[in-house]
Amino acid sequence: MPPRGNEGFDFTPILTHYLFLFTSILSIAGWFTAFISQCIVTSSIRNGGRAGTGSLWFAIFLQLFLILGVLYTLATDSISMHRFQISIFGAIAIVFAVEGVTLGVFSPIGAQNAMGAGWFILTLVDILWVLYFTSEEDSLSLHIFNMLGTGGLTPPSRRFGSPNPAGIRSQNSFGGSLNDNMTRSIGGTGAGSIHNQPGGGTGSIGGVDNGPSSPLMAGIGSGNSGAGSNTEAPQQQQPESYAYRAKALYAYTANPEDPNEISFSKGEILEIVDKQGKWWQAKKTDGTSGIAPSNYLQVI
């Protein structure tokens, strides 16, 4: 699934990714439990009670913005854009959530006990979110989380649009132009070919006939017949050998502005000829070849 960017909200990743489905439900339930309990606790203080909330009113709204931020990030498939902010604020929220648990669970007042239970749920959710958003793509934790489903989400290091694989494109462009120049000069079809000279194919140097019977051309082709055949017979192209096979972890749509990229679907098997760098040279089963992002593939 390509990044959605500004194309609107899609809550399918939340519904199909069991980790985020589970934590989203728990976070909403825990937040309302903690919020309502804090209201009751604050009301009891005004009526002469000894219960307190400390700095939890700041924490409850910090937690609310964190929940909304996570839901927005998932609905817009923009994990790579917001993962560091979510991780930082999530770590701060964990500290306040632990304080809320401490103030609530050891109190003899029922409202504070309920507040502590709500903050305990939020603590667990915040820890799971921080673990997910700080995980790199090759880490064990992200692999375990993705066993619960990926939800079609773009991997953490993949930004909107395709990265610029300049090195691969430059090498392809250079290789193509070099092969074209060699074909023009050696294959006998370019302007610099000795077989494409004016004058019926015989050519001349300084007005002197350079045909097969001329003194200048007398020794060419007579000593080694194999050398002469190399310039006339087309060279056989060696088939590419693919040393690796990879399975697509996610669906990928090629950038229309880059003809070197290829599109593939999730679970598709690709042949890999070169897996150096972040972009691999791959070939699909239908014969289409091009470059593919390595973070979308897994060698099998």
TrEMBL record:
One GO term of the biological process aspect: regulation of actin filament polymerization
Localization terms from the record: Cell membrane
Spans traversing the lipid bilayer: 20-42, 54-74, 86-106, 113-132
GO cellular component: plasma membrane
Polar residues bias locations: 169-186
Family classification: Belongs to the SHO1 family.
Name this protein carries in UniProt: SH3 domain-containing protein
